[in-house]
Amino acid sequence: MCMNKTIIGCDEPDTASQSIVGIIFLVANCSCMAMYVLLQKRFVFGRSWEDKNDDKTLGKWDAYPVHLTAYSYLFGAMIMATTAGVRYGINQDSSVFNVPKETYAAIGYAVFISSALAYGLITFANKYVSSVVVTAFWPVQVFVTIILSYVCFNDKMDGMEYGGMALILVGMFIVVYSNITESKDRSRRESPIFHRIINSD
């Protein structure tokens, strides 16, 4: 029906639907990552001292959180390889195994820095602080991206971006302050002195 989609905008519904699908995938990604962090905290770093000190159960994972990250990526790599093999088996598309030389640097950064190092640091942080604090720092990516875009590409920032960065910092401060206050209260309630005072009353 449309002779020129670019001129009269007949491709707008497709673009809108693609944007919606992309947002759905982003929400799914955030949900999966949040569940990953919470499961780590609950079933590995949140166990009793007896389990943590027993090398036959979770002692090694708690002492060396990098082991948990390594196992996570091992299974992730196996699933991705299986997916590529299934696609090749169905479509006979050998391009899934072709890696252009121009992408070596980007793939190396993605594998070793933004994936292995980043998720390893997340696992270490999840051992020592609350899962809420770990996930609260994710919006810092927006903050850093805006600054690097300005420094590297000379992108100009408007008032909305400044306001967004300020809100991110305020939100992080509130979450961290609340977590510190809660940790202090929990430590005070768990201390022997507190229990002796309660029992004496």
Description:
This protein has 10 helices and no strands. It has helices spanning 5-8, 12-45, 49-52, 59-63, 66-91, 104-128, 131-136, 140-153, 159-190, 192-200. Helix 2 (12-45) packs across helix 6 and helix 8 (140-153) packs antiparallel against helix 9 (159-190). It is globular. The model is unreliable at 1-11 (pLDDT under 50).
Shape: globular
Mind describing the biggest β-sheet? none
Helix-and-strand structural type? mainly alpha
Could you tell me the strand content as a percent range? under 5%
End-to-end CA span: 84 Å
Instruction: Please state the CA-atom Rg, rounded to the nearest Å.
Output: 24 Å
Offer a quick outline of the entry.
The chain has 201 residues and is mainly α.
List the helices and strands and how they pair.
Elements: H1 5-8, H2 12-45, H3 49-52, H4 59-63, H5 66-91, H6 104-128, H7 131-136, H8 140-153, H9 159-190, H10 192-200
Helix pairs in contact: 2-6, 5-6, 8-9
Descriptors for this entry?
single chain; 201 residues; mainly alpha; 10 helices; 0% strand; globular; disordered N terminus
